[in-house]
Every structure is written in structure tokens, then in C-alpha cells.
Amino acid sequence: MTDRPPADSxxxxxxCMPENHAPIQEEWTxxxxxTWTKGHLETKGIDEPRLAAELLLAHALGCKRIELYTxxxxxxxxxxxxxxxxxxxxxxxxxxxxYLIGHREFYSLDFIVTPDVLIPRPETELLVxxxxxxxxxxxxxxxxxxxxxxxxxxxxxxxxxRQPGIAAMATDISPAALAVAARNGERHGVADRVRFLxxxxxxxxxxxxxxxxxxxxxxxxxxxxxxxxxxxPQNVRDYEPGQALLAGEDGLDIYRRLSPEAAPFLRPGGTLxxxxxxxxxxxxxxLFAASSPPLQLLGRSKDLNGIDRAIQFTLPA
Length: 317
Description:
By secondary structure, the protein is an alpha/beta fold. It has helices at residues 10-13, 30-43, 49-61, 78-92, 97-101, 125-137, 154-162, 175-187, 234-237, 253-258, 281-289; strands spanning 103-106, 109-112, 143-148, 166-172, 194-198, 214-219, 266-275, 296-302, 308-314.
């Protein structure tokens, strides 16, 4: 690519790749595009700029990220450069990479994501690990699972994928999110075992609840405090759905709604697994211990930053 990419607007003008003014101009190879874009995204304060450049370029080229390094000297076509340029402009404005490329890896599975759903985070994999461990500790041919606020469906679908005996119901208040989750259920071959249902938390039709309650209830609910909204990273605050993030002045509103209602939906001896925010574990534990009947704490699990990120309860038999 020897010409400067066209800048048809002030927004695009901010992105123009530099021309090489040497007598013999270099072409825009994969390697050169990666190097330039990494530097450009660094100046814009984008996290992990090299990874972002790789993900965007692999998407523009229609290949796997690892394949970029076997194509390092390949010259991108004009069409590929145009698609790549548009994504880099948006990424420099802090639009999440997952929304630009339309997918995100979670627990080694690839999930479709759109701005209608929260982008899956590595720390949420703790909920999957705890649910699978519980299944291993309580051997059975069949388990019932409820995933409250499923979003992209990543939790319920991953558990169903890894545990063939799971029959799951995944709920969300957002029809648009449920449409994404249903696509992911089909994508991963578990649509016959994961039912997607529009519901507000535990407002479930009676005929959808198994006799005696669910074996496992999991939820990654909204838990960001409204007062902390402006402190969120720009790519989260400006692009991810607020309904999936924010939960009242202190971030505990959803737990307050769930805690008095959860026990009747959980079978005795079953488990409830929740993701919690920074410094919320004590408050959440107290809310569920005060429920009627009270739920018993099984344990807490820390994320890679040493924060109590998942909290697990049981309903004593």
C-alpha cells in the first residue's frame, strides 16, 4: 500500500497512516500494518494495543490470529485495508474490540457478541468452574441449571457444553440479548438442552421450575454502583449495555432482590453461585444468610487480582 488512505472526514483524517517518503515506498504488508497500528492504538490509550491490532487485522483478512505470522509479508488488498481502517478508527475511539469483530473467547469457546450483551470476562469463568466442580462432587445422570441474566449465554452454554447431563434454562430481561444467546446455543450445539426465556430475575412461569427446584443456580448480575459509573473505563461506560452493568447507588440492588426469593427455586443440597464486585462479598453473604430459609456459605473464589469474585451457597438439606 503506497498511497495514504483517504480521509473523507475529520474522524478519518485523525487516522491517516503515514506515507513513506523514501524514493521506494514500502507496501502495507501484514507485519507493517500490525506495527503501525500497535503504535497508533498506544497513543490513544487502548489496552493491549498489539493484541487489539492482531484481532482487528485477522478479522479484516478473514483468518485466525495465529495465521498472521505465516502471512507476515503478505500485502493486504485495498478492500482489506479499507475494512481494517474503519475498525481501527472505531477502536481508537475506545469501541470494544469484541463488538468490532463480533465475537469473544470464553472458556476456550468462541461466542458471538453484539452491543446488546455484556462482553464475557475471564473472571466470570470462575462460575463455570465452580458449577462443573459441583457436578463432579454430586454425580448424577442429569442436572438442572438456571442462569439468571444470561446475556450472551456464555455461562449456561459453556456449562452445558462441558457437562452433557445439564438441562439448563437461561433467562434475561432483554429480548435482544436472548436472541444473541440463542445464536450461541445453536453455534455450540446445545440448543436442545438450553432453553432461553425472557424473565425478570426469578419471575418464572411455574411450569418452568423443576419439581423441588434447580440443582444449580448461577448468575453474573449487574453490580456496578451508579456512583462509580464515570470511573468506568471509556470502552465499558460508553459502549456496553448499562442495564447489564449498573445496579443502584451501591451496586447491590440485584442481590437485594434475589436474596429473599432464591431459596424456593433451589433444591435442598443444591448450589447458588454468584459473581460479585470488588469489596461486595461480605454484603452479599449477609444478604443471603438473612434470607428465609437462610442459604449457607460454601465458599468464595478469588480472581487473578486476588479479589473475591465468586461466592457460592447451598440450601441445607
